[in-house]
Design a protein that fits this description.
The complex is a heterodimer. Chain A is an alpha/beta fold. Chain A has helices at 4-11, 22-31, 41-53, 86-97, 115-119, 132-145, 172-175, 189-208; strands at 33-37, 57-61, 102-106, 124-127, 149-155, 158-164, 217-222, 227-232. Chain A has an eight-stranded mixed sheet with strand order 3-2-1-4-5-6-7-8, with helices on both faces. In chain A, helix 3 (41-53) packs parallel to helix 4 and helix 3 packs parallel to helix 8 (189-208). The longest helix of chain A is centred in the last third of the chain and has 20 residues, at 189-208. Chain B is an alpha+beta fold. Chain B has one domain (2-73): Beta-grasp domain (Ubiquitin-like (UB roll)). Chain B is built from two helices and five strands; from the N terminus they run βαβαβββ. In chain B, a hairpin with a 2-residue loop joins strand 3 and strand 4. Classes of the chains: A alpha/beta, B alpha+beta. The interface between A and B is medium-sized, with 44 and 22 residues.
Chain lengths: 249, 79
């Protein structure tokens, strides 16, 4: 007969065998609290894999409601969810996927004033946002608190991912210009799904301690070719967020 | 000198590749910055976030060397 305990062990049996993961890594995941900023294309994909992997506490933050135009990429929602709060629907679905974890929905706008309060006691931030201004606000919180942040962004068939842990690594403002994109980007579900899954992998590596994160490096995915490049990113001494203003490299 | 600019994304249309599907050969005089090269090609700077070559980010004030291949990245901000 299956008991709840050995049911949980069986649930994770196919991942604890990854070298370096084991029961200890699984316990680290269970003890972790991850703040998922944005429950859109990236957030749906990343949070699905974090929930399935057994991350003990997820906070899913998004102020928006589900729209029909979200359904090509935001795979936690169905047409019946249109008009409902994304964070609440996402939390419900993730909790159903893995009842042994806690998923807290937060319906709120992230900005420079609110970011750190919303992140709270999370040990890791996942940037699953869809605009530069909010990303920069979250980055400022990561710089101020020292909470590491997995950065990701997508457009067309292109994706970027990095693991930011200032002051040890560059922060977002060190290498992403503040220039806004000229138009609302196209975001196919496959791009968001692929990049969101890589964000989850970065989170799992950091939380379990296995492998190497993308700290100090940027993964550039060009799906059209296809091509994956990993490039070094350097701190900008004059960075307005984490550097000494006035200095340049 | 000659440099090569490449892009696989939306920028490719503006780049008008002539070496292969993704790469444009550009002859430049002196040692211009990436910004100056793109401006001379009438590529709006708002369409380029940064470039990279040899595994490193190259900002728009970077001066490419002869024969260097720079991969251009558009602003990527969606989620």
């Amino acid at each position: 007969m299956q008991t709840p305990r050995n049911g949980i062990e069986e649930r994770y049996a196919r991942q604890v065998g990854v070298p370096g993961w084991g029961a200890e890594g699984q316990q680290r995941l269970a003890a972790a609290h991850v703040f998922v900023a944005g429950a859109g294309g990236l957030g749906c994909a990343a949070s699905l894999y974090l929930a399935a992997a057994g991350v003990g506490r997820l906070t899913v933050c998004d102020a928006d409601r589900v729209e029909a135009s979200n359904l090509n990429r935001q795979v936690l929602y169905t047409p019946q969810d249109i008009g409902h709060e994304k964070a609440s629907i996402a939390a419900g679905r993730l909790g159903a996927l893995n009842p042994s974890i806690e998923v807290a929905p937060v319906v709120a706008e992230i900005d420079e004033r609110t970011a750190c309060g919303l992140v709270g006691d999370a040990g890791l931030i996942l940037d699953c946002l869809d605009n530069p201004a909010t990303r920069f606000a979250l980055n400022r919180c990561s710089v101020a608190t020292g909470i590491p942040m997995v950065y990701a962004a997508v457009s067309d068939l292109t994706g970027h991912v990095s693991f930011l842990r200032p002051p040890a690594t560059p922060c977002l403002e060190c290498f992403v210009p503040r220039t806004p994109p000229p138009a609302e980007p196209a975001v196919p579900g496959v791009t968001a799904g692929l990049v969101g899954a890589i964000e989850a992998m970065e989170a799992i590596k950091f939380l379990t301690g296995i492998g190497e994160t993308l700290a100090g490096r940027l993964l550039v995915i060009e799906g059209a070719e296809p091509r994956f490049d990993v490039i070094a990113i350097a701190k900008n001494p004059g960075c307005a967020a984490c550097g000494k203003p006035g200095k340049t490299d | 000198m000659v440099i090569y600019l490449r892009s696989g994304g939306r920028l490719r249309e503006r780049l008008r590749p002539d070496v292969d599907q993704y790469t444009r050969r550009v002859e430049v005089g002196g040692s211009p910055t990436l910004r100056e090269i793109l401006s001379a090609m009438d590529i709006p700077l708002a369409l380029v976030a940064f470039g990279f070559s040899d595994g490193k980010v190259r900002r728009l004030d970077y001066r490419p060397g002869d024969g260097e291949v720079i991969t251009l990245q558009p602003p990527v901000a969606g989620g």
